[in-house]
Design brief:
It is a single chain. This protein is α/β, with parallel strands linked by helices. The protein has a single domain (2-149), classed as Rossmann fold (3-Layer(aba) Sandwich), CATH 3.40.50. The chain has eight helices and four strands, in the order βαβααβααβααα. It has a four-stranded parallel β-sheet, with helices on both faces. β1 (2-7), α1 (13-27) and β2 (33-38) form a beta-alpha-beta unit. The longest helix has 20 residues, at 130-149.
Amino acid sequence: MKILMVCLGNICRSPLAEGLMREKIHSAGLDWTVDSAGTSGWHSGEAPDRRSVQIARANQIDISHQRARQFSRADFNRFDLIFAMDKSNLNELRELASSEAQRKKLKLFLAEIGDMPFEEVPDPYYDGNFQRVFDMLDVASDRFVQKYTGNR
């Protein structure tokens, strides 16, 4: 399975989601691929926000090597599932999709899990609540791996 995590700038939420999912996949012994991107290109080539790097590192996950990139239409062909962190980014991705098959790959990450208290992952860039975002993504990543591997 090939999974893409998408937020606005690819420096806060989606790098954390990529790092967490990568760790969960590795721990489960799965041969899956995970990457991240942003709907905007504002931060292309930049490392994740230092606060994302810090919260990941505090939880034994290294995302410092990641670099932001903008989502490309070619990503529709490269990935099986494309998870948006919020509805705004999901809508942007839907506008880029050129077929129903591409639109079917698009999902809100937390909504896909089903029993999360929120549908959207809030952007911690301005409020600084990176721990809350990390915790949400951690639970969602665990549940995603369990859901798709049948390990409940």
